[in-house]
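Bench notes, afternoon.
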Amino acid sequence: MAKGVAVAATTTLRPAAPPIRQGEPAESLYVISSASTIVLLVCMWMLLQMLVLGRISEARAQHLLYGEYRTELATETAPSGALDYNGKPVVEGSPVALMTIPALGINDVVVDGTASGDLLDGPGHLRTTPLPGNVGTSLVMGRSTTYGAPFAHLTSLEVGDQIQVLGAQGTVTYAVRDVRRAGDPIPPSPTGASEGRLILATADGSGALSVLRPRDVVYVDADTTKAFPSGPVYPTVPDSEKAMQHDPSAWPLLVLLLAFLTGLVLAVSIARRHLRTTLVWLVAAPVAIALAWTVTDQVMRLLPNLM
């Protein structure tokens, strides 16, 4: 009898198993569903930002650059070479020229530098060449697909079309000489005391699907016989400023942002077990979009600069 009582007591004191809630997903399902939703949101936002919202960002940057450059022209402080009016190197990303192409409806400020980050704001000047409008051969690069795609229709230019450049020393008008691609012969460089050439470069291709495949570079050569004296140029630039190159310096910040996204996934997964799903996503979605915006900027720096 005593043995039976002891067994019964032991059975009574044993902790009861927690009740099983029918239809409640496992913890792993919360993580998987949260991660899938956030990844989908980030990917969709990246495409939207690259192809649509980036145009707005580029237009705003151009507006600010135009105001800055107009002030420099009015105060005669605009650079005419690699050095500014104080004799210091021109800050990368600063405005250095205003370029107008009537046939394409382009009226853009050209910034100094051609890395992926520089070309988010508009066309960029390769710093190892003279500034546009100066004697010698100047090279200006621009995107063909993303962030405003200022050079999307560059290949539609025809021989004789005009390109006007306003710089620190005045306005210079170029006439298009040819459109060439990889393998085409390169025309002889101008040698006259006041001759200049402007080369425009972009990725050979445009449209939403072109961001998914690598392309060659297409060039437009335009000449003038009335260029201004050239100022100093940089002897060399990083590989990230060359055509169809990327900027590896974006990796550290990108890795940090991806860590934040991982933390957001875990936070959402935990919150959904205790709070209503609608409320959780109402708070998490803006945070995910903000992270996606910053992630996209870094990803753009890791993609070829002319895309």
